[in-house]
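Predict the structure of Helix-turn-helix domain-containing protein.
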Amino acid sequence: MGDRIAELRLRRGMTQESLAERARLSVDVIRKLEQGRRKTARLSSINAMARALDTEPSYLVGQPSTFEVPHSGDDSQPSVLALRQAVSPIGDLLGGEPDPEEPSGIEELQASLVSTEAVRREGRIGEIGVLLPPLIRDARAAAHAFTGQEAAAAHSVLAVAYQVAATTLTALGKEDAAFTAMERSVAAIRHSDDPNLETLAASTLSWVLTKQGRLADAERVALTRAEQIEPGFRSPPADLALWGILLLRAATAAVRQDKHGEVTRLLNMATGAAEAMGRDLNVYATPFGPTNAGVAKVNFLVEMESSEEALRTARGISDLESLPPTWRARFHIDRAQACTDLGRDRAAETALLQAEADAPEWMRYHSTSRRLVSELRERAPHRDSSVLGLADRLGLIR
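Done. Here is the predicted structure for Helix-turn-helix domain-containing protein.
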């Protein structure tokens, strides 16, 4: 990270002092990162430096830019190019391409989407890269070929598939391509038969914008939609869940802008919705309820550098098994961050190994995981093989 910061700073003709001033950070933070004496920084600091240097946060943290899986030479390998081609087919610019004579049926498309979402929850990024391109092509063909309710159902599948593409491309640091996928999703939603897909799109777009470093835009998108669908506390659990998900998206963008008061307000509202639900619920492959609200609180406390409180809160969270593997892994990574901040390296390693047990492939693409493992590896005794082995499995090069 330090090398990338220094390179961009010099290209911009900035001194360490001017970068620190523009990013509203201590010059000591900039200096230590560039000198390699510090390997990591808070997400709020990374976003601030990215804004000051006019780049994406993913570039600064060195996020993997392609699928991190071994290629065996057959045709069933994930491909960023294939995913780009599915999201942005050249035929749209050349007047269209002929669709298959017999497009896939609606039930087949819906089953394929359910399988893809299950893979996404488990964090098997490479498998998503294999499944998504043909699913998008098949759903597009069905949407063109069918009429009436079948066409609307095909557009619903297509809209969600584009959103899965957006999250996958974002995980690969392809935020601009992810935004294109979101534009395609919104266009498909206009012809779909599911009124909740617009809310789902706002949630996904807010996350993509957060990853782009467009934090104010991310917060605005989530809050605007949350205001439009605000339920009563006697509303059905699914309505409360959709609203709560948007509030947590907005809070995620707010915490990375150091808007701690706003984070607390949004979290309190989301927690109230979760308590009104009384149980955890998966809505469009996204969990929400008392457990996820608690996990989100831990994340926000870590971001606000309240590490002791984060760990106390984490100990009080039960029913973690109700969450998808990637959500559990993220929770353990937040615990690891808190332990690292408090100098408890052994506990941090244990938490990271728990995260790896839940979602090993996903961790290879998760910037905070990579940063924490890099930092712990630098401090680890040579005889400590656990963190060194984890670094190797994440593909981290010394």
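Residues 79-194 form one domain.
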